[in-house]
Amino acid sequence: MNQNSLLSALLICFATVITFAQSDSNSTTPKDSIWNFEGNFQFLINQAAFNSEWQGGGTSNYSANAVVNYDINYNKGKYTWDTKILGDYGINKTKNQEFNRKTNDRLEINSTVGRQIGKSKWYTSAFMNFRTQFAKGYEFGEDANGNETRTLQTEFMSPAFTQLGLGALWKHSDDIRVNISPVTGRIITANSKFTTTQGYVDGDFFGLDQGSSIRTEFGASVNAFVKFKLMENITVGNVLGLYSNYLEDPQNVDIDYTLNLVMSVNKYISANFTFQTIYDDNAVKGFQVREVLGVGFNYDF
């Protein structure tokens, strides 16, 4: 599936999801409340072990993943302020493997302020989006002797993406909102060590020029969030971010879509499924896809 086909499919799916969610919105914000705080912490762990006599094949391993999803919503009079904080980090270790390997690594903050237009669901808005990772990321390989090697590829704040924009917000509830910003500035930052390696070519590291630690862009963005209860004890969250750079290849729209499905067994045990796909031609000429499924400890706060 190419970029345009995926973008069209995501927009159609989001429109369908919004229509469904409007009829079954599960927003927990009381009508007389100014502030609403809602969050979820999950810790998922998997482990497999085999002794030396086991004949069926397999390698002992373990993996762990921690997820934080926190919402802060403010509503008073004509003003609204919605902030979402997302944190996701996971590791995997296989027997006889020298290094741990990351399975997930994400830190993202989205915040939108709006002032209602008349009595409609539309607001004039300003938004901020910040995205980076918690820990170093490596590319793994082997040397001539068969020993495992790793090469540093990314780290905390390298890269980091910051977007600031002005536009219009359509808000049905705290759980259903779409922000459209035709005036968006984006800043990509990184440690200059990633752009000063031997043979570096302009743009190789998330669009940054050789020797540079910052890249500025100007474009348009669309950010949407939809959360609804699919059925009893099953909640579906959808986050979609689109960005087009007016100054360079505006037809190449950056896509970042995440689906998070939480299936609660009880107050402390849940199953979690996360699917994310990213298209950013400054990073790689293709789609980045991750998927996580696990059962573990769950805590709502």
Give a written overview of the molecule.
The protein is mainly β. It has a single domain (3-300), classed as Beta Barrel (Outer membrane phospholipase (ompla), Chain C). Helix content is 7%, strand content 60%. The chain contains 1 helix and 14 strands. Strands 1-2-3-4-5-8-9-10-11-12-13-14 form a 12-stranded antiparallel β-barrel. The chain has a two-stranded antiparallel ribbon with strand order 6-7. The chain is flat. The model is unreliable at 25-31 (pLDDT under 50).
List the main descriptive attributes of the protein structure presented here.
single chain, 301 residues, mainly beta, Outer membrane phospholipase (ompla), Chain C, 12-stranded antiparallel beta barrel, two-stranded antiparallel ribbon, 1 helix, 14 strands, 7% helix, flat
